[in-house]
Amino acid sequence: xxPIRLVIxxxxxxxxxxxxxxxxxxSQALKGSGVVFTEAELREWKGAAKREVIRHFxxxxxxxxxRSLDKIEATYANFRSRLENHYRERGVSRVRGAESxxxxxxxxxIEIATTTGFYRELNDLILDQTGWxxxxxxxxxxxxxxxxxPAPDMILRAMEATGIxxxxxxxxxxxxxxxxxxxxxxxxxxxxGVLTGAHGRERLLREPHTHLLSSVADxxxxxxxEYS
Length: 228
Known about the structure:
The chain has ten helices and six strands. By secondary structure, the chain is α/β, with parallel strands linked by helices. The chain folds into two domains: 6-17 and 93-226, Rossmann fold (3-Layer(aba) Sandwich); 21-90, Orthogonal Bundle (DNA polymerase, domain 1), CATH 1.10.150. Strands 3-2-1-4-5-6 form a six-stranded parallel beta sheet. The longest helix is centred in the middle third of the chain and has 25 residues, at 66-90.
């Protein structure tokens, strides 16, 4: 059996705490542009590339012409401003046990990387605030690839960046249905959901996965039990 050589973590809701700030920024920006949606619909897009979320809701309501393109850009700028200001003013909270899990993995020469639906600038802001900018071998943002989740592009890019090409040696960890879909589409060996984000166990159980954990703090125990 191939050993695990790479663990890829989602960011918000997986290794940093999610207090609803992303959904709130989406909600306020969309409402400001007169876009109709429900909170349940919006929650299903957690983990997706942020511009694509806004594009979906704007184009669903408005015709696909130059006016809708202007509305997408204005709404996206509003979203970015709200979320960046939130993180700058209130900071970022790490998920308890995340850093000890990173240390455990690195002690065993298992590479660690991140993927996120955030764009590059916001991802860098978060990693700077946590002090984790140098922690990961690769940090892939939705703006770095052609397609965000549920496409496997970010996971495949992280594998390429770390030089690990065998998906049987990779575990992907995330808190959303789209995280689990992306891991499944990448055909990695471990597709692990965690319950520290916006979605509960019942929702994640409806997606293909290998394991569900309370948090990333439980990952070392899982690896020792299932992958050693």
